[in-house]
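Q: Here's a chain of 233 amino acids. Please give me its 3D structure as tokens.
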Amino acid sequence: MAHPPGAPRSPPSSPPTLCRSAGLQRGEAVRPRGVCLLCTRTRMQMHPDVERVLFSAGELAGRVKELGRDLARDFDGRRPLLLGVLRGAFVFMADLARALEPVPDSTEVGFLRASSYGSGTESKGQVTVATGGPDVRGRHVVLVEDIVDTGRTLAALVGRLRAEGAASVTTCTLLDKPARRVVEVEVDHACFTCPDEFVVGYGLDFDERYRTLPYVGVLKPDMYNADNTSTGR
């Protein structure tokens, strides 16, 4: 079709570019100005307190979807009970629950509250598990954590669930940080191995901040006490 004389012409579209940070394959396009359709890992969108993005939104979504399919296959016909550990795992838990495909029959969702540290970054060395929670007797429990580093919280929760009569306990974490391990604990499923950095976002916080960031990023050291860097989880 001929372009009408005098009519404004649309600017040429920018050629597709590749998002190296998300590890996209050749040919997968991102928006002009380098804003990735999947990961949105750009300087324009990164929180000023974050030093760098460690795992982008696209990388998180892809890995969680993969894990959801694995769990759906493993728990087919077993009525799994997904238990998320508050508060850090709430985002991961929601995405993982929706990623179960196909959904195992009679899948249920619940939450537990546990803590090994207060408003700082240093573990208190003792794990506090709140009373109450779903009845786990005879259930196949999938325990969903945000991050496992010292292993104290996970070990305490697994021990409690087994003592309460769970038929099985499968541990699942978004991030595994083995460099901080203090207690030997088995992690059945980990989305990513995390370097020895203080990370926030996608549910993880520092002093209740940064939970709503869509990615996992490394917090700038001047945002917290440099002498107090263990998350204690």
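Q: Can you summarize the key feature?
A: The first helix runs from residue 57 to 74.
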